[in-house]
Amino acid sequence: MKKRQVVVRRKEPERSTAMRSARYGECQKNHAASVGGYVVDGCREFMAGGDEGTGTALTCAACGCHRSFHRKEVETEVVSECSSHHNPSNKA
Question: Which runs of E-coded beta strand occur in the chain?
Answer without folding.
Answer: 16-27, 70-80
